[in-house]
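step=predict obj=Branched-chain amino acid ABC transporter permease n=293
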Amino acid sequence: MDSLFVQQVLNGLITGSVYSLIAIGLTMIFGVMKISNFAQGDYSMVGAYTAVFVMAWVGGWLGWIGSVVAAAAVVGLLGVVTERLVFRPLMTRWTDIDMIMVSIGLYILLDNLAQLFFGATPRMIGDPFGGTTVHLGLASTSLLRLFCFFFAGITIVCLELFLNRSRMGVAIRATSQNRFAAQLMGININQVYRLTFGIGALLAGVGGVLYGTLFAIYPTMGALPTLKAFAVTILGGMGNIRGAIWGGLILGVAEALGGNYIAMEYKQAIGFFIIIVVLLVKPSGLFGRKEGA
């Protein structure tokens, strides 16, 4: 097998795992609360900046791990606060346009606040492993990028265990299937909403640290992760966590292969071309169910 092909697949899987993590948060919020949160990528931006400041205090791999934990805590709390103060008051409205406009407003507000407090100069998260390279047969990558891939995987496995094995996880799944039936079964819907939004934001925060480890960090960086997250959730099927996982990996690999074999200029377009084809053939997404099925 061509080593260049294997190398690009590996690069795509690493990038795609980060896309998946951010998209899972978005699809969880949509699946349970029916909110299309356009500020999801900006939660990633806040997580990335949190990592920058934590790593300025604590260096090395311990600082990197600490930055992920700090980003999860800060952004998770930010998600809980915005759900309670911004989104929940609008949940009784009969139209979704209010919710969409509010999330776009939140996205612009977070962008501008980041510009005000952090400035426009791009920043990078330092490599705690000193640029160590790992050789994997036909491909190679840095230890830090490999660490990002496994960390994203471990986070997704922990989320799956929480949703399938814990009482609150079952309540979240029940609410996503039918919130009125869940209420009749005695589930506290407001608590489920608060926790779901907090976890969705937390995943975006962790994804932001991984994204900021691979790419530059700047105040408007949230736009691209938001776009990718929507692309992944539409590709995999809105509200479907497994679809978000596979959708992220497919998009990451498609971008890497397309950018290498066709042209880097068309890298972004290639991923979205695949999405258009999938939606024309299967409008519910690769793993989504048809309405009424």
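step=describe
The first strand starts at residue 133 and ends at 136.
step=end
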